[in-house]
Amino acid sequence: MVMDGAARFCRSAQAEPLAWHIPVEAIVKEEEAEHLRESLLPYVKRLWDEYLDPNAPSAIAHDVYVKLFERSRPRIGADFILFDEAQDADGLMLSVLRAQQAQVIYVGDPYQQIYEWRGAVNAMDHIRAPECALTESFRFGPAIAQLASRVLRLMDEDTPVRGQDHVESRILHDSTSGHDRFDAILCRKNATVLTHLAEGIGRGDRVAVRANVDELRAFADGAEQLMRGQRIGYPATLALFETWEEVQEYAESFAGRDLKPLVQLIDNEGVDYLRLILTRVSPEDEADYIVSTVHRAKGLEWDRVQLAGDFKFRNGDDGKLTMAPEEMRLLYVAMTRAKRLLDVSEIRRDLYTMFREAGV
C-alpha cells in the first residue's frame, strides 16, 4: 500500500504525497480506511525521499522519473502535440500539457477509460476544445459493432460504433467445444487468468499469459503464509485477511466470488501446483492461445476472442440488472478486442438480461 501510494502520488500533479493517494480496498469501512491512510502517509513520504536520494537502496520505477520530469517544468519544442489515450490520462501529464505553448490535440474514447482505479482521469473532461467524433472501427464487422453499440447505449451514448461491412464477424452465444477455437481469453482479474491457465495446462494446451505474473506468484506465497497463520502485506488481495480460512469464507460470499475458482484450485491442488503451472507459461508466438486481463489487452486485437465469466453484474436501486460504470467500460474494451469472433457464452444470460431490462 505504501508503494502504491507513492506511485499514485507520482502520477498526480501534487507537490507532495497526500493521504488520498494511498489506495485502500473497498471492503474496508471508510472511517477505518481514512485512519489507515493517515497512518501510512509518513511512510509514503519517507519512500519518496528515498527515491530522491541517489545513495538510497530503493529502486525507482517509471512513475518516479516521469514525476521528476514534471517537476522540472519542461518545455516541449513543438508546434503541435498529439496526446493519445487521453481518457486515461493523469494529473501529472495534464499538468505538463497545460504548461505548453503548443496546440494540443487530445485523442481518446471516454468509454474506454479503464484505469480510474489507479488515479487516471479523462483529460477531455478538463478542457474546452472543439470535438470531432471518430465512430468507425476498421477492426471488426457489423455483428460485433452492434453488440458493442448496445453497451454504449447503456452508457447513454446514442451514436453507435460502426464496423466494416466487408469484415465477416459473429457473436458466439453457446461455446461447447475446446479453447482451440480462440486466440485469446479475456478476464477481469489476475485470479481468473490463473484459473484458465491451470485448466488449459491440465488439458495439455500451450498457454501464454498477459497478466501480472509476479502478483500471481505472490498470491501463492501469500496463501501459504496465511495457512501457517502468518499475516502478509502483499498482494493486496490477501493483505486484509488473518487466516486462510477467512479467505475461504470470503470466496464463498457474493463480494468474493471472483476469488472462488483460485481458492478452490489451491485447496484442491495446493500452492506448489500453482507455482508449477506458472513455470509452464508458453511464449506468445508458440502458444495455442493467450489468457489476458482486459487491462493488459488494451490496444491489442485478435481474430477470435472469448470473454471470461468474471465480469461483474449487479442489481441497481430499481432492481434491474446493471453494471458499475467502470465495469461497463471494461466490458466494452473487452468486446472490441475481437475482429471476427466474439464468444460471450459465459456471460450471456446476465448480459442479455441487462440489455432487455434497460430496453437497449
UniProtKB/TrEMBL annotation:
EC nos: 5.6.2.4
Chain ranges of the UvrD-like helicase C-terminal domain = 291-346
Q: Which InterPro entries does the protein's record reference?
A: DNA_helicase_UvrD-like_C, DNA_helicase_UvrD/REP, P-loop_NTPase, UvrD-like_ATP-bd
User: Listed GO molecular functions?
Assistant: 3'-5' DNA helicase activity; ATP binding; DNA binding; hydrolase activity
What reaction gets catalysed by this protein? Couples ATP hydrolysis with the unwinding of duplex DNA by translocating in the 3'-5' direction; ATP + H2O = ADP + phosphate + H(+)
**Entry keyword Membrane:** no
Where in this chain does the record put each UvrD-like helicase ATP-binding domain? 79-122
| The entry's keywords | ATP-binding, Helicase, Hydrolase, Isomerase, Nucleotide-binding
Keyword Isomerase attached: yes
Which GO BP terms, alphabetically?
recombinational repair
* Protein known as: DNA 3'-5' helicase
